[in-house]
Amino acid sequence: MLIQLNPTGVLDLLSQLEVDLLEQSSASERYKLFRNCVLAVLNVGSHTDESSDIYDKYKDFDIRLVSRERGIKIELENPPETAFVDGEIITGIHEHIFSVIRDILFICQKYEKDLKEQKAITHMVFDMLRNAGALRVNSEPSMVVCWGGHSINEVEYKYTKQVGYELGLRGLNICTGCGPGAMKGPMKGATIGHAKQRNTNNRYLGLTEPSIIAAEPPNPIVNELVILPDIEKRLEAFIRTAHAIIIFPGGAGTAEELLYLLGILLHPDNTKQCLPVILTGPKESEAYFKELCEFVEMTLGKEALDKFEVIIDNPELVGQKLRSAMANVRDYRKSEGDAYYFNWTLKIDNDFQQPFAPTHENMASLDLHLDQPKQLLAANLRRAFSGIVAGNVKDEGVKAIKQNGPYILSGEPALMENMDTLLQAFVDQGRMKLPGSKYIPCYKIKA
Questions:
Q1: CA distance 272 to 345
Q2: What one-character DSSP code corresponds to residue 182?
Q3: SS3 of residue 446 by DSSP
Q4: How far is CA 441 from the centre of its chain?
Q5: DSSP label at 219?
């Protein structure tokens, strides 16, 4: 099966030099990454969080860029049949494929060298979002970032949809990690709220990165897709585009996101920041939030608890609070002379920006002790949870665990005991893998 596709979006008008650069990129070492990301996009709606399941099933899949005088076409060889209806590729998948080309081949070649300076990294995040059309200059604050697990139960999933519905009724837009579970639910609920209000400018922004996209392919509702180079730039993109953040129940990845956010909000330069944060779920998830809050208080202190609000089993209240908070966000940005579409004034230290490679050596050497600045502790805890995510679902991490055994995490006994308790709760509640999958921990905790 051989399919040719015409470009869409920013790639529908290219110079010959740009076409040449794209062809060179597709023949480079980046090709495997590019191919795997396209394959993930073609598997929208897949029910697996094992990247290898997709890669092994479609070993004969290939993609080529075909140069034309007026631009490029792409050629798909043996793509998944589920991406087509009556022989025609689904429009959303078609668009997402060219998002992959735009972000993996087109933009990333501008940033071949590792970036070290804070301003340079933030500029790259801004440049990628701008090039993707994700920054709307003449729009009022309305973007709600929703975090939460890909593996949540049916009660929690329905709750995320209900919250999304309340947000949609109030004209708020949704940004998530674009996968299943708590990333899909708010978008699905918001579509109904937007439809009832006859809102035709609805936005469902998905931010992902190459190492996670196959385990969490974009859900079918995402109508804007941006693929950031790594988890650190993805997280920065989330909080710089957010006007508010909702955190639903989740596992290690959700803990990573919360720790990243709190570590940044605890910076003295961010004291005045106006960024509403709400943790919410159904009454059945109340114990989950209690455990999470206890871990935050034990590690980062009561000051960290003041950076967010917990609302249990009240989607309407969540919608009301965030709708009214948009005026405060607007007033704050206006008073600071900051953009509504990108939070430039947010201070993000280098510890939260530099990519962390979750090798066994790096995981074992993490400084997991309470006697250090709260921001640095948050950064190290974030790295620990990021490594666990890699060992759970990211292809390279899963392979490393199979080859070398589980990661070893060690540190101050009280801290390690609390981390072990939290992680075991995630395991017991089925938050580490999709339902039906047997979970074998990719880590060992040592005091």
A1: 10
A2: G
A3: strand
A4: 22
A5: P
Question: CA–CA separation, 393 vs 352, rounded Å?
Answer: 22
Domain coordinates in residue numbering, the chain = 1-111, 141-347, 349-443
Residue 338 CB neighbour total at 10 angstroms: 14
Q: Does the reported pTM lie above 0.70?
A: yes
Residues 296, 297, 303, 307: is their CA dihedral positive or negative?
positive
Chain-centroid distance, C-alpha 215: 12
Give kind and range of the element (H or E) at residue 96: helix 91-100
Q: Tokens 């996101």 identify what position?
A: 257
Over residues 182-200, the pLDDT tens digits come to 999 999 999 999 999 999 9
- Greater confidence, 207 or 10? 207
Tell me the one-letter amino acid at 391: G
The pLDDT score that the predictor gives to residue 203 is 96
Is residue 114 pLDDT above 80, yes or no?
Answer: no
Query: Reduced to 3 states, what is the DSSP secondary structure of residue 419?
Result: helix
Looking at domain 1-111, its CATH superfamily turns out to be MoCo carrier protein-like (3.30.1850.10)
Which top CATH class is 141-347?
A: alpha beta
Confidence of residue 140 (pLDDT cuts 50, 70, 90): very high
